[in-house]
Amino acid sequence: MLKALLDLLYPPACIACAKVLPGPGSFFCETCDTAVERLPPACCRTCAEPGTFPGGACPRCRAAPPPFSRAWAPFAHEGPLARAIHRFKYEDHPELAAPLAELLADEARDFLGRAPACVVALPLHTRRYHARKYDQAQLLAGVLAKRTGREAPVGWLSRTRETQRQVGLNEAERARNVASAFTAAAHVKGREVLLVDDVFTTGATARAAATALREAGAVRVEVLTLARAFSLT
Ligand SMILES: [Zn+2]
Ligand SMILES: [Zn+2]
To answer: Contact 60/232 with Cβ under 8 angstroms?
Structure first.
């Protein structure tokens, strides 16, 4: 009943270009599907930065080992996938949380097979949440958790300091912008946490969030995002 109603309100459409699809079962139209770029298999074994690195660790992870044990994304932040994320984040399409989370669950099956059972979203600051009316990472985390039999507790991680958008900032500025921006609740003590967000770029935000979780006692943090920007090019 609810499913039929939702199909009526949101007929299956390409998540990138909104073209109506002939039926359910796919996320993209044919044109977009062929243009989707997956993350190359050769990448940093800790943070998934694309490339072949000595010892398997990219220069960034070698210079400063991250507070998370691994970070991964199935897609490159390019083309139709970047377009879908933009629609989801900035063009008032919260309903894209469901197909994007399903897509993530399908494409990250191997990663998820060994990932923590507790999903925590990288949160927005309250003021930005009120402006956007939804927290895209929280929606994504909620559907992903449901779909993969995990829990997605709310309030375990919050952004306590308002930060500038990372877009347009260089690496050092990004790190400064998000430093100590997050606070984790005492519930995380002794837990393993899967941190979920839409895009991973330099990892500055994921590092700041994982640091807050580890400082509050989380024993292991892993990071899963939909897309990975190629940050060292
Ligand atoms: Zn399309
Ligand atoms: Zn790395």
So the answer is: yes
